[in-house]
Amino acid sequence: MAANRTSRRGAKDPRTRGQKMLLRYGWLVPLVTLAVGAGVLAVTYAFASIPLPSDVKLASAAEVYDRNGNLIGIYSGEERRFLIDTNKLPDFIGAAVIAAEDRDFYDHNGISPRGIVRAAWENITGGGISQGGSTITQQYIKNAVLRDPERTITRKIKEAVLAVKLERRYSKKEILGFYLNTIYLGRGAYGIEAAARVYFDKHAPDLTLGEMAYLAGIISAPESYQPKGNQEGARAQRDRVLEAMLEAGSIGQSQADKAMRSKVKAIKDVDGETKTQEAAYFMEWLRKDVLEPEYGSELYTSGFKVYTTLDLGLQSEAEEAVDNQLSAEDKVQAALVSMTPRGEIRALVGGRNFNNVKAARGFNFVSDNGRQPGSAHKPFTLLSAIEQGISPSSRFSGASPAYIEDPICANPDGTPWEVDNYGGSSYGTLDLDQATTNSVNAVYAQLIAEIGPEGVADLLEDFGFSPPEGEKEIPPRCALALGGSDVDSTPLELARAYAGFTARGVLPKVSPVRYIESSEGDCVKSYLPTDQKCGVRAKQGGTTVVEENSADVLNQVLTHVVEGGTATAAAIGRPVAGKTGTTQNNVDAWFAGSVPQLTTVVWMGYPAEQKGQLVPEMRYCSDPELCRPVQGIEVTGGSFPAEIWADFMIDATAELEILSFPTPVSMPSTIINQAPTVPSAEPTEEPSEEPSEEPAESVEPPPVSEAPVTPSAPPPSTVPSVAPSPSAAGGEGENAASAARRAPRRRDGP
What we know:
The chain is an alpha+beta fold. The protein has two domains: 75-261, Orthogonal Bundle (Penicillin binding protein transpeptidase fold); 330-343 and 378-505 and 545-750, DD-peptidase/beta-lactamase superfamily (Beta-lactamase, 3-Layer(aba) Sandwich). The protein has 25 helices and 21 strands. Strands 5-2-1-6-14-15 form a six-stranded mixed β-sheet. A five-stranded antiparallel β-sheet has the order 8-7-19-18-17, with helices on both faces. A two-stranded parallel sheet has the order 3-4.
């Protein structure tokens, strides 16, 4: 036995030193772990900074309103957000989310122990962090504060700590509201209001019980339960939430049964940055040309409220006026833009398909590229003459064709510049007032030769028109008098210029925006001098171009165009100053007109098409099919465009005071009295002082045409001239290409 005892004492213990230490002190490990964990939690709680929900900048879509506060549409990027007052939501909306995501919401302090245990077990057995178990409070912290996609222990600890702190700072009702404004629900929608709009085309307070139950049911995997692709799954998720709400006592059996019987119906998801049911061309132009260049991506994330100068009532009237003149089977396009003398946009129609955002993105005839303006540009030549002291009583021959021998307008080979009146019609001697009223090309050709094209070119630039591509300034060509020489115009540019006439020589800054507010209601920027939303008036945007009296003289002449000239179709029972314009082959037809409070421009024509797409080059029409007259009628500016203008303006001015344009204080004193421009030939008889015949309209109904239909005797055949091109007789304004070939460039000085 002694030997045995000796052998036992002498036997070596097989356990290692580390194992012995573990057995001796192992019980301390859990305590140390708990202590360290408690220390980490304590330090994190003490020093972690919680961005308060009121300080969290959520990406929100911009809302756009008209001048009367009516919502027009929204601008959103990939994320669509609309912050709303959740206190105004029906109780079942919050109840549905709680039933779906956190049934213990009102019992925990931000962390659900049962959820944590379940998540911990799943994560241990799964070998990593994969299971959530987060409360609504934790989900809000994750979505709006941390926004960290990585699932790490550190992030989960911080999430839990911040959730506890959040619960101590805010009430359960407030936290639920934060969550409803930030939760992602698919289709790019963040928050219950955005989801209500993109799924059901309504506001959140208008959601039905079944619709809200569906939205609550897809929070965990919104893209997996889209009604179109997975109707069965969508209904299952909805019904699961309804059953949970019934179990919690949030709803009654009859409510649940009624909601379960319905099908989940959601509207089609449409991608895009502009969402609108109205004024699509205005919305796209405003986004692309005005707001995005100034605010960039902030436009889509800031939650701006953009209050515009547009009037949705007038916009509707403008669309109706245009639509009434466009036959469904025709390819003709039309555009209308209306603004105040301050440049505030009241209506904008950029083409067909008024409320189609896709169409509006394609091409906007109000603002994208110019068209040849024809005689709608004649007022700038007249205004240049007035500024030089030349009276509208100055007289010129109205014979057609006119031969301009002055070197400033002559052809490069020295032969005279030949100009035809519309339709080849001739007149006797006319003063400038009569020549404007009847849109007589021959007189305007003589006028620009008299005053020089330099002043006209400068005036066009001063009124906001751009030089042709490749030119630094508008070339001073005589064809400017007829709306040619490659100086094209958009309806927006022309409307701004004519608004400058109405504003007595002050060219306005185009102003589609009144002011912008932040999502909190603070003023971001005020755009109009008449608005003081930011505490100070915005700077006046107008630029004085000509003297008031010069503009008054011009407006007085332009009223005669509507009273008894080429635009009698635009008469609306109050003073109107305007001018028609028609180009070669009737491809472009214009009417630009104003009452003292409002200027409106209408364009109508056929776009050139190439491979089914609109292309920028639209001045020339090689396809006879595209050039055919609208509805079988040769359209002039005094026909359909003037009629569209009148249809719109009758409604637009219904509540405006009837005002007259200011009477000129004085008239220019220089009176020119030119003889007929027939080179090397004596007239056989003295021409009459009046037009050879009262103009008659070339379309039904018969007010006044853009030129008389009965020509007087042509000039002698011995007159040297350039062989007339097919476009020589063109429209009211000579064809730009032929005019440019015949009228040389010239500008005095270096």
